[in-house]
Amino acid sequence: MTCHARSCRYPRSATEATRLLAELGDQALVLAGGTTAALSRDPRITTLLDITRMGHDTIEATAGEVSIGCNARIQDLVEHPAVLTLWKGMLGEAAGGVGSLPIRNAVRVGGNAVALFRWSDPPVAYLAMGALFDVVGATGERTLRAEEFFERHPRQVLGQDELLIRVRIPVPQGACGGAFVKLARTAFDLAVVDAAVTVRMEGERCLDARVVVGATRSLPWRAKEAEEMRRGQKLEPRLIQRAARAARAATQTAGDVRTSAELRKRWVEVGVGRALQRAHQAARLGPGSALPVLAERPGGELAAGLPRDPGGSDGAWIGLQAQVNGQPVCFRAGPGEELLRVLRREGLSSVKRGCQQGDCGACTVLVDGRAQRACLLLAAQVQGRSITTVEALGSPEKPHPLQAAFVEHGAIQCGFCTPGMLLAAEALLCQNPAPSADQVRGALDGNLCRCTGYKKIVEAVMDAAERMRT
Ligand SMILES: Cc1cc2nc3c(=O)[nH]c(=O)nc-3n(C[C@H](O)[C@H](O)[C@H](O)COP(=O)(O)OP(=O)(O)OC[C@H]3O[C@@H](n4cnc5c(N)ncnc54)[C@H](O)[C@@H]3O)c2cc1C
Ligand code: FES
Ligand code: FES
């Protein structure tokens, strides 16, 4: 059991959600992607509030702004054409740095902004882009500028009954450029330093600039001296270097398990320098072209009005309905019980328990066709959704082409990682039947294999893709 909740509510609108929040006070735990909330052990929590059924999950673009619903997924930011052209794609870059694909499929824009950790990437870009945050509470709506939203931790900025419902980003006019740089120990690790820069230019002169640093303190911050230094100036390499040094000098930070304070400061200089250079180059280019949008995922319908079953051993079981491997099923789960545990209890033992913190990918399942971590989802979150485990992929008599290719290429040794690998590969091939080897590596980068190595696995996926096309 991950938390002490005894029931789960699924509000259908922001009004209903905020009314419930006002009623329940600190007994309610809002669930968006659930990747952080699912780990809560706060004894006061009695009710989970899954806000993903209340809408606000789209991204809309007008001439003046891009409006991002709080329940849009972080991966949507990576794929949406309007986000990819905004400030030359800097928010897409920041979102692309959030964990691996299954994590980005789970994490929601609102959850990511409100949960805010020191190393959270998109908030750094929001501050550099001058985003606006629309917040709704039981008594009305208000809009906060990024500076206000991140002035303290957003949890302290929001009232008990308030929800962030959308993030709006003004579309810049004129010659503008933006860049986001994440410096981390590996592509998949948390940031040691984030740097986000936006510039507005007139000819060679910089009219205005924002330089934001993340991962060095609990909140992202603007390096004002680096910004001032460049206003009205020609952006020459020497000035960029001076501004990057000024950001380093202004950095107050501490060492941690990833790096020492000194090295982190040095990396601030490197990150800000690179971001400034790239933002400057981007401002010189015309509007960037958007990357192709991936296929839309099938939606899951919520089964309404399910009865609560109080007869479970914890006295607080809930009844859930979902499609599991193509079959409609009903099952019972504790409201705070993670999906991994429930699936294994239901006999789906292909879903492996590895790290239990979203890192290894052994527990990967498909939720509405997207690869997600069963260890980071509460069972209550999959109410009405479609779940696929590797049991549905093929059988020993009739293996799926991916399974056959894994065997033929020797892409399996102990097999512990294999179900997760197969499902992550299956999700990729459904969206992109002809991926490059790099795209395969990207889709599998959150699935760790301790014994086979990755070469044979990538070869097997490429081979299966070819077989499935012919
Ligand atoms: C293995 C792993 C690696 C990760 N790596 C990164 C990374 O490199 N960079 C990065 O930025 N993030 C990363 N994350 C994500 C980050 O740690 C958080 O887990 C995530 O941002 C929380 O988003 P969520 O949608 O799951 O929120 P939830 O866990 O559902 O909610 C988090 C909190 O926000 C509140 N909340 C949610 N939505 C709203 C709303 N609309 N209004 C008001 N309050 C709300 C909830 O009450 C809850 O307290 C990683 C996560 C994992 C598991
Ligand atoms: S990612 Fe879920 S068990 Fe490791
Ligand atoms: S085959 Fe053993 S972990 Fe991958």
The name of the CATH superfamily of the largest domain reads CO dehydrogenase flavoprotein, C-terminal domain
Q: First CA to last CA: what distance?
A: 46 Å
* Main beta-sheet strand count, sense and barrel state: 6 strands, mixed
Radius of gyration: 23 Å
How many DSSP-defined strands? 18
Summarize the amount of helix as a percent range: 25-40%
What share of residues are in beta strands?
A: 15-25%
Number of domains: 3
Summing up helix and strand content along with how strands pair, one would put the structural category as: alpha+beta
Gross geometry: globular
CATH class of the largest domain: Alpha Beta
In the CATH hierarchy, the architecture of the largest domain is: 2-Layer Sandwich
Word description of this protein:
- By secondary structure, the protein is of the alpha+beta class.
- It has three domains: 7-52 and 306-390, Beta-grasp domain (Ubiquitin-like (UB roll)); 57-284, Enolase-like, domain 1 (2-Layer Sandwich); 393-469, [2Fe-2S]-binding domain (DNA polymerase, domain 1, Orthogonal Bundle), CATH 1.10.150.120.
- Helices cover 33% and strands 21% of the residues.
- The protein has 17 helices and 18 strands.
- It has helices at residues 14-24, 74-79, 81-85, 90-96, 101-106, 109-115, 122-129, 146-149, 154-157, 224-230, 237-249, 261-284, 339-345, 401-408, 418-431, 437-443, 455-469, and strands at residues 7-9, 28-31, 47-50, 59-61, 65-69, 132-137, 140-145, 163-170, 175-184, 191-202, 205-214, 221-222, 308-309, 317-324, 327-333, 364-367, 370-373, 386-388.
- Strands 13, 14, 15, 16, 17 and 18 form a six-stranded mixed sheet that branches. The chain has a five-stranded antiparallel sheet with strand order 4-5-8-6-7. Strands 9-10-11-12 form a four-stranded antiparallel sheet, with helices on both faces.
- A hairpin with a 2-residue loop joins strand 16 and strand 17 (370-373).
- The protein is globular.
- The termini are far apart.
- 51% of the residues are buried.
- The structure holds flavin-adenine dinucleotide and FE2/S2 (inorganic) cluster (2 copies).
